[in-house]
Amino acid sequence: MSHQKLSIESKCIHAGIGEYEYGPVVPPIYQTSTFKFQSVEHGAKLFKGEENGYIYTRMGNPTIEAMENAVAELEGGYKSLGCASGMAAIHTTLATFLVSGEHVIVSESVYGPTATLIKNVLSRYGIESDFVETANLDKVKNAVKPNTKMIFIETPGNPTLETTDIQTVAEIAHENGARLVVDNTFMSPVLQRPFELGADVVVHSMTKFLNGHADVVAGIIVTKDEETYASLRKMLNQLGGTIDPFNAFLVHRGLKTLALRMKKHCENAQKIAEFLEAHPKVEWVRYPGLKSFPYYETAQKQHYGPGGMISFELKGGLEAGAKMMNSVKLCQLAVSLGGVETLIQHPATMTHASMGKEAREAAGITDGLVRLSVGIENVDELIEDLNQAME
Ligand code: LCS
User: Ligand 1 test: best mutation among 83, 93, 107, 111, most atoms within 8 Å of CB?
Assistant: First the structure.
């Protein structure tokens, strides 16, 4: 049966699995930095690209390739590139497609280090940027300049969950000769597939939902054609932010339960968001599955489920939020997200501290905002824990 016809649940189990010596059902871990050539002539042919084969793990490795093929298949893309972290994936993508004098439009609400990489590092190489509320399509249109070559959106955005209409922004990008890159970390390909909506490149921090077990730092860039893939591969070979075989093996293992996990993340988060919304101590809650979500229509249009991320603020702001975060017992106070365990954190002093107060305020990241990554524990026990922490 062609994988293309399979459901996302079955793809999670079978994607990327090839044929290996002795017939294992799981790709072996080729924990090697380099590969032997049969002769000088053979080595030369591999380097020239006249023959297929492996040379050196930074340039390619069968365990990594199996995981890359799996993620590409889940996203409905062509090929992908495993990276050492989500930041390595983002850096490689920006460095490949932007040169000095060019301009990128970026979602205001993005992971803090993505914003600082663009503002503080890429600016040193002459790359211009504007951070805008990409959920507001007029603002995106107005931000386009003659030298705009990329629109980079993170949707839903970290940590505000600001949701950008991927299809319309893809149209704006393409009408203006720019590429659309989507950071799909918060949804995973089970809940959102940006290529179906016109995106050109998809990136992920695989540290999050894709691996799902809080034991790997990794990233990926997914492409939809050979030309894009080849340019990125060349850049990744030079920048060197490649994933290693063991981490690729772990991510591939995690992918098998991705659909199952996402279903449970959604069920639990929906119940918790409803509990928070009804709680007298809660000032506001943002969750794509709530009717009160400011981007509810866009979310309904482009998501296959509401996801596992919630942001909220207590009455009493930061002080009340800090008290709550210090009082959880089952939920854990830690950054990162997308794992099987529920994590709670404070963006203004943690994940988004590097952005500075002004940029945070512009992006709607208030000092009192609390971010919850809902895990797959028993939801009644999670609610009991949140309730006692608020009391
Ligand atoms: N993109 C998004 C949307 C992220 O949330 C993160 C990390 C990254 C990219 C970077 O990925 P990494 O290099 O860490 O694999 N987000 C984190 C967070 O919210 N808490 O800790 C890390």
Answer: 111
